[in-house]
């Protein structure tokens, strides 16, 4: 019997359930190759139920995505910190064809004497897809990118647009959708008639209400949402969006620090207060990327301009009364930290503290309540961390199958 027949014979005697359980644990790179083993394997690997199950399995072993500015090369870069090796960052290749987006290249060829300038901004990561914003002098393109399959797609432009104050990207597991949200303000009259952005009115006669442009991966379409119940005075966003269980959260600063929430299922806004704190003590508050145990979380720590001793992590108790009030928060744990804080994210049952400016990264085990890793990252500046999992999900939508990866 030939070697090929032996391989075929050994595979054929395994029940399909066992084959599926084996394949579901393999990395995407291997699964893309195994699609050519047989028609049965191709059908299995491209089955939406298998793709969903593989994604669920991947979420049990997430990686950390580091995006920042690398020196001395003076270039943007993305790296991964894998769960099985939490000491080494692995570079993630950004396709050149992704960077040379349609708007950028069109403007360059129309007038090559104008020196092009392209900025690369990672809005967010969720369910194996990254959402990237590419900006040049003349416009903005949004791109959905699956690094595991090496596929990407330019998101079509909305028919309506406005000046964006905040944006965010996330994966809604229950709805099986990926959503890109752009938040802005809209002037309105006392009888709630919408007014064009370019018109200027006296503050005594006109207020601001919130609105959102929401892109759905499932429908490949945009939806414009107004919420005239939400009177929005002048405020300034602090940090990027946090996405937890179907809701986006932004830390905004106006007359006071407060959280703006947007529900992607009900398409409504709400305000949430931060946990109670001693008003006589100067503190910083930060939202926790990824939340904790499926709930919104934030950290509060004393700040004197240079150092802090410990930070308290608070979690919203959704089962309690008055969700969104100060009383709805419960203290979850305290983490020792010396330095200035830039960001806190969750990584499975661990919490990662991202130091500001000095490249200080601390990994804290919430179960044992011990610091398991503490190091300085000398390779990046101005960086941010996000969660990442491998996925077979198609950037084209739920009804499209992945073709072979780009070379």
Characterize the largest beta sheet: strand count, sense, and whether it forms a barrel. 8 strands, mixed
Number of helices in the DSSP assignment: 7
State mean pLDDT (0 to 100 scale). 77
Radius of gyration, in Å, reads: 23 Å
Strand order of the largest sheet: 19-18-17-16-20-21-22-23
| Number of DSSP strand runs | 24
Structural class: mainly beta
Tell me what portion of residues adopts beta-strand conformation.
35-45%
Q: Can you tell me the residue ranges where pLDDT is under 50 for at least 5 consecutive residues?
A: 1-11, 198-205, 401-407
The termini sit apart by 36 Å
Tell me, what's the shape? globular
- Overall helicity: 10-25%
Pfam families: F-box, FBA_1
Domain F-box: 8-55
InterPro entries: F-box-assoc_dom_typ1 (IPR006527), F-box-assoc_interact_dom (IPR017451), F-box-like_dom_sf (IPR036047), F-box_dom (IPR001810), SCF_F-box_component (IPR050796)
Protein name: F-box domain-containing protein
